Each structure stands twice: as C-alpha cells, then as structure tokens.
TrEMBL record:
A motif (HXTX 2) lies at residues 126-129. Residues 9-85, 97-172 form the Phosphoesterase HXTX domain. A motif (HXTX 1) lies at residues 42-45. It catalyses: a 3'-end 2',3'-cyclophospho-ribonucleotide-RNA + H2O = a 3'-end 2'-phospho-ribonucleotide-RNA + H(+). Its EC number is 3.1.4.58. Keywords: Hydrolase. The active site is at residues 42, 126. This is RNA 2',3'-cyclic phosphodiesterase. It is an enzyme of class 3 (hydrolase). Pfam families: LigT_PEase (PF02834). NCBIfam families: 2_5_ligase. The lineage of its organism: Bacteria, Bacillati, Actinomycetota, Actinomycetes, Kitasatosporales.
Length: 189
C-alpha cells in the first residue's frame, strides 16, 4: 500500500480555500491544470511510498509515539507558491516550525519502522491545489500572485494522519488518486 503522513485541514479551512481556488479557475491557462479534489486536500509531512502491509503495525506504533511527543499547534492557510511549472500550492503560516518538527518526526518514525525513506529534503509546508496536465506548460506565477493575500482562519493542528493513496482508475483521463486516512493520532497525549 502507498502511504504518506499528513496534516488534514478542518472543514472550515477547506471551505475557505475552495472559495479562493474557484476564483483561480478564471485565470488564463487554467485549462492546462488538473485541480486536486477538495476532499483530498492535505499537507504532506512525509512520503512513505509503497509499504508492505506486514509492517503497518510497527509504523502505527512509531507514529503514535511521534504524535505523543508533539504538542498541538496553530496553523492557517497563507498565500501560495509553485514548484516549477508542475505544481501550484497554498502555503501555511502560524506554526511552521512545529509543522517542520512534526514532518521530521514522521520521517524518523517511518525510518525506524523500517521504511526505506528517500533522502530527507528540506521541508516546505504546501497543500497542492493543481498540477500541470501532461503536454501543458502553464505559467503558474499569476496564480501565485492571485493567492498572495489569501489568509485562512487559524485552527489548532491536533492530529497526525497516516493516509493511504489509492491509484487513479486506469484508463480514465485526468483521474486522480483517492486518499483514505488509515489512522489518526492525537498530538501531545
Ligand atoms: O500532495 P503533495 O503534492 O504534497 O506529490 C505527492 C503528494 O504530495 C507525494 O506524496 C503525496 C501523496 O501522494 N509523492 C508522490 N510520490 C512521491 C515520491 N516519489 C511523493 N513525494 C516524494 N516522492
């Protein structure tokens, strides 16, 4: 199974973001983008990749410990950014240091559970809202400019989530992976 660790924003944050993202659909070149589904919006903390189901209990134990070590922290959606011409995302503010620490802990927990993690890159909190469609080359900078003043209402991040990514239905153009939370742990308990 394909797994990743994530922070899942609450419904209010999702709804606020949905309004902001709707406005982006009118910008030039938006047809070259594949917008991610609202129900799957998440901040990836660590990508575990394909994991043997047998080690899931060990992963869960390690993740439980990692979550317990971290106190809840405030976060809000804030502005946007892009990775080249590939991905457009919304950023976060408020508890970025705590978020980075949680990402590091999730990465370490997965490693200790025996997951072959890729090299741990500098963590950048981002929630992907669109990706370039194959064969399109949309300039994402106007989208980032349009998001520059976007500020969501702050919430308290109180959970670490382990999410399963189910592959898109084969043969359906534009089909997206389906994300399914496997388990969530409260922070700080
Ligand atoms: O939602 P974002 O973009 O933060 O890009 C994938 C997505 O992150 C990322 O894991 C999240 C859930 O699929 N991802 C997919 N394959 C990856 C890989 N090989 C990857 N991240 C790192 N390495």
């Amino acid at each position: 199974m394909r797994l990743f660790a994530a922070v899942l924003p609450p419904a209010r944050a999702i709804d606020e973001l949905a309004v902001a993202v709707e406005r982006l659909h009118t910008l030039p070149g938006s047809g070259g983008l594949r917008w991610t589904g609202h129900d799957g919006w998440h901040f990836t903390l660590a990508f575990l990749g394909e994991v043997d189901e047998e080690i899931l209990p060990v992963i869960e134990e390690r993740f439980g410990r990692a979550a317990a070590r971290q106190d809840p922290f405030p976060l809000r959606l804030h502005g946007g950014g892009h990775f080249g011409r590939r991905a457009l995302w919304v950023g976060a503010a408020g508890g970025i240091d705590a978020m980075r620490l949680l990402a590091d802990r999730a990465d370490a927990a997965a490693r200790r559970a025996g997951v072959a993690m890729e090299e741990h890159r500098a963590y950048k909190a981002h929630l992907t809202i669109a990706r370039s469609r194959t064969g399109f080359d949309t300039d994402l900078r106007p989208y980032v400019e349009a998001l520059a003043h976007f500020e969501g209402t702050a919430w308290t991040v109180g959970e670490l989530a382990l999410v399963r990514s189910n592959p898109p239905v084969p043969g359906v153009p534009g089909a997206q992976p389906r994300y399914e939370p496997v388990r969530v742990w409260p922070l700080g308990r």
